[in-house]
Amino acid sequence: MNDRIFVVFNPHAGKGRGAQFVTPVLEELSAGGCEVEHGLTQGPGDEARLAREALEQGFGRIVAVGGDGTWSNVGNAILGSGRAGEAELGLVPGGTGCDLAKSLGIPSRDIHGCCRIILDGATRTIDVGRIEDKHFLNIAGFGYDVAVLEDSWSVGYLEGSLLYLYCALRQLGSYRGFAVEGEADGQPLGRHEMLMVIVANARIFGGGFKVAPWADLEDDRLDTLSFANMGFGGRVSALVRLLLGTHAAHPQVSRVAAKRLVYRFDAPPTYETDGEWNQARGKELVIESVPRALRVRVPRGD
Q1: pTM listed for this prediction
Q2: Please, what are the domains in the chain?
């Protein structure tokens, strides 16, 4: 395997905590005897640019230090490089949510442990999701999920699951819902008024909520959780069940697993991919599973 490692740091991740990772991560990786170089992001798009440049220079392992958005942007660069069959993505949690790491067994707040995985761990080739011209590694979300994400931008004193829970509670009574018509692997799902739709490639979102605890990163499918629009009491009940991981049994929550999903909205929707906000180009969106697409460093025995 190519031992050259390039590290992409997002110093703004985790409300500025990402800057604290630069020196210890570089020291740990360099101690492993590999050639290590790095770059720091300065603004939007820099993560992908730095990763693309490193891949063009022949680096075999691209390590992303940040959260789900950072990992997703670097993962997209690898997937679009033509080198996805050989290059590997390493993850060091340093952001707000860091949900993909939880599904992969990568520890949080353990720089030494993460660097040992990058140096001596195993390689797992995982599925990814694709929507419009981008891939997502963890989840794509519509509706209430996006409203919570937008609300989180204005809260500077919390992070992780506490931030998302606080914003979820703030949006619980005010979010109005949306209409959507769905199709899963060619089978119609009907048109419904929805509170939220989560398309999960991995198990966890929102800083630790087990939205799809049965999801498998290597089963060629996406697991979709659809929360019907409901009154305040029903929303509270659904949120409590989501916190407990028992929401799939809620009468207003439906689940479907599919390789290809089609959603038709009344207007081009906003949506999130791995915590990144997006504006759809059209009213119809196709979401597909891309099997065994991305090589990721994971703990041995995972």
Answers
A1: 0.92
A2: 5-120 (3.40.50.10330), 136-291 (2.60.200.40)
